[in-house]
Amino acid sequence: MFRISQFMRDLANAERTGAYPAASHRKPPGPVVIWNLIRRCNLTCKHCYALSADHDYAGELSTDEVFTVMDDLKAFHVPVLILSGGEPLMRPDIHAIAERAKAMRFYVGLSTNGTLVDDAEADRIAALGLDYVGISLDGLRDTHDKFRRLDGAFDRSLAAVRLLHARGVKVGLRFTMTALNAHDLPALLQLMRDEQVDKFYFSHLNYAGRGNIHRGKDAQHLATRDALDMLYARAWAAAQEGRDEDYVTGNNDADGPYLLQWVATHLPALHARFGDAMAEHLRAWGGNASGVNVANIDNLGNVHPDTMWWHHTLGNVRERPFSALWTDLSDPLLAGLKQHPRPVQGRCAGCRHLAICNGNTRVRAQQVTGNPWAEDPGCYLTDEEIGVAGGDMRVVTTPFSARQTLAQIPVVEAS
Ligand code: SF4
């Protein structure tokens, strides 16, 4: 996750005080765990990475098993649990799980589509004292309902935002951009402000589950840059005005170098004074965290490097504790993800921003080329911007099932 607002607030403070804060290279004690506790969902969204449907799935972790895993996660110094699904509110024991997680002093977030949140559910969520609730909105009413394949889904999700907000729960909107909904981004940002929503999470499309099937609809690089220009300008204005709004992005770590570039273009005087310090902060952030600071446990207890790697399993918490699976580097993918620098190839290997971006999202590379270390086809920076002479070697995102040949990928040995 890339916290735009944090960088913008630091820059706004530096503009006022003349000092940019020193970067901290201290690493978190354990990974953030995104936990898909249930696969069932009342919706069948077009970009769902979990390929969820509205029926029960056999073999999901029991309440006792979840509690046992939580004990291991706590001992392993996991700081954050994001309870997700499917639709996590369809799990009958979700409140007991969340209550225990809070009692164990995890930071607890809930990712929901919001359609099941009525007054009573909002009361229960508020009483749990969750740290954050993210509600997905893929556009305004028509767009969202088409994406979610349910008439009325937008109204129900927006009602959930209002019900929770009225109870003092920190709420964020989650927006996954594709070519089919990019036009709604300005209106959604305005909606965020009108509703006084705390956070806007902009997710780039990742190629997993139905997101992979629909990868041919991924926003083109120019549309992605336009969207980020809009987000950066908004976050900068909010920082200068002292607004308590958070803008974050996910699933494309080229957003880090692109922020530096945006500051150089739009705020050249500040870039000249604080650009080096900002770059150091971006390196300390460290880019893509899959397999390092982000982990995933699915509904069956399988552990993955992140939520987009459900086709690659490190083991199951019923057989080995999460802490053992996460530190077992006999798995070549996990070992490569934890390697620093990662053994990336193609233009990522020669990129001058590798220390900031960390090679971006390996799932996109693997889904399009078959090679998890190939360049990320979702990188929207030009060869000139990353400092390589790539010519025509770019991997292009092809529609689902049309894989490119590995022969197109230049092999570069890891240093
Ligand atoms: S070329 Fe690779 S390492 Fe460089 S910014 Fe793009 S995705 Fe990141």
As a percent range, the share of strand residues is 5-15%
Known CATH architecture of the domain at 31-219: Alpha-Beta Barrel
Low-confidence stretches: 401-415
Spatial extent as radius of gyration:
21 Å
How can the largest sheet be summarized? 11 strands, mixed
From the spread of the alpha carbons, the general shape counts as globular
Q: What is the straight-line distance between the termini?
A: 26 Å
Report on this structure.
Helices cover 40% and strands 12% of the residues. The protein has 415 residues and is α/β, with parallel strands linked by helices. Among the domains are: 31-219, Aldolase class I (TIM Barrel), CATH 3.20.20; 340-415, no CATH class. It has an eleven-stranded mixed beta sheet with strand order 1-8-7-6-5-4-3-2-9-10-11. The longest helix has 21 residues, at 221-241.
TL;DR?
The chain is of the alpha/beta class and 415 residues long.
What does the secondary structure layout of this molecule look like, with pairings?
Layout: E1 2-3, H1 4-17, E2 32-36, H2 63-75, E3 80-84, H3 94-103, E4 107-112, H4 119-128, E5 132-136, H5 141-148, H6 153-166, E6 171-177, H7 185-194, E7 199-204, H8 210-213, H9 221-241, E8 246-250, H10 255-266, H11 268-285, E9 294-297, E10 302-304, E11 315-316, H12 322-326, H13 332-338, H14 346-350, H15 354-357, H16 362-369, H17 383-386
Parallel strand pairs: 2-3, 2-9, 3-4, 4-5, 5-6, 6-7, 7-8
Antiparallel strand pairs: 1-8, 9-10, 10-11
Helix pairs in contact: 1-9, 1-11, 10-11
Iron/sulfur cluster binds at residues 254, 257, 347-348, 351, 353-354, 357, 359-360, 375-376, 379, 381, 386.
Cofactor: [4Fe-4S] cluster
Pfam family, one: Radical_SAM
Keywords: 4Fe-4S, Iron, Iron-sulfur, Metal-binding, S-adenosyl-L-methionine
